[in-house]
Design brief:
The protein has nine helices and eleven strands. About 45% of the residues are buried. The chain is of the alpha/beta class. The two termini are about 20 Å apart. Helix content is about 40%, strand content about 20%. The chain has helices at about 15-20, 35-45, 55-65, 100-115, 130-135, 135-140, 155-160, 185-190, 205-225; strands spanning about 5, 10-15, 25, 50-55, 70-75, 80, 90-95, 120-125, 145-150, 170, 200. A five-stranded parallel beta sheet has the order 8-7-9-10-11. It has a four-stranded mixed beta sheet with strand order 3-4-6-5, sandwiched between helices. A two-stranded antiparallel sheet has the order 1-2. Helix 2 (about 35-45) crosses helix 3 (about 55-65) and helix 4 (about 100-115) runs parallel beside helix 9 (about 205-225).
Length: about 230
């Protein structure tokens, strides 16, 4: 298979699955319905699966006209068809601080699922009511990777990072009042977390968090199978 296909308005990265383990994912925001539909079709032809993030209902309708089995979630705005050929080991736990953070949390969860992860969700467990989080201590400890989504002051990942021995991926959201600066306050809080080992992605980047979690689980699977992890 050639590395990419030039279709005029973009160059579809057909070689990405061989390089990274997963096909190119379409970022729907800023693209036209026709563009998303065409790229989606090329990816389906090449890989048998495809996904678009930040997709609109109009994009979903166009893609479903070609692939009726495709699914669209209006909360996460994920549009996908097909699944990863292999189920990854372990469990990814997605924690959301507040109900307003659910769209970003669902983008993370849906991305990880599409990439082959088993995902569990626990929402509305922010630090303003810490007992809600502590009620799930055992579930936190059983997870292989934790994605922690929070807006406002972004404190939840630090708390979670102090409770578990697994990787914590923090996702700041643009949920908050004026001094929150559309997620900047949460981002800076997470970057300066006192809990060691907390990794931070960009504001509202649920996709990036889900992808990172899947790659960690991919590494676990390769280790279990005894594959040489060093090229």
């Amino acid at each position: 298979m050639k590395e990419f296909e030039d279709i005029g308005f973009c160059k579809v990265d057909l070689g990405r699955e061989a390089r990274t383990g997963h096909p190119e994912v379409i970022f729907g925001q800023g693209k036209t319905v026709r563009q998303v539909r065409e790229v989606f079709g090329r990816l389906m032809k090449a890989h048998g699966r495809a996904m678009a993030t930040r997709a609109t209902p109009e994009m979903a309708d166009a893609v479903k006209a070609d692939f009726p089995e495709a699914s669209y979630d209006p909360v996460s705005r994920l549009l996908n068809c097909g699944r990863a050929p292999r189920r990854l080991p372990g469990k990814v736990l997605v924690l959301g601080a507040g109900t307003s953070d659910i769209p970003v949390a669902e983008e993370a969860a849906g991305t990880a699922e599409w990439m082959g992860c088993r995902v569990e969700r626990i929402y509305d467990v922010g630090v303003a009511g810490i007992d809600r989080l502590l009620a799930y201590r055992e579930a936190l400890r059983q997870a292989g990777v934790l994605i922690v989504v929070a807006g406002m002051e972004g404190a939840l990942p630090s708390v979670v990072g102090g409770l578990v021995s697994r990787p914590v991926i923090a996702v700041p959201t643009s949920v908050g009042y004026g001094a929150h600066f559309q997620g900047l306050a949460a981002l800076l809080s997470m970057l300066t977390s006192c809990a060691s080992g907390v990794t931070v992605v960009n504001i509202d980047n649920g996709f990036g968090a889900g992808c990172a979690a899947a790659k960690i689980q991919q590494l676990v699977m390769e280790a279990r199978e005894g594959e040489d992890l060093v090229p």
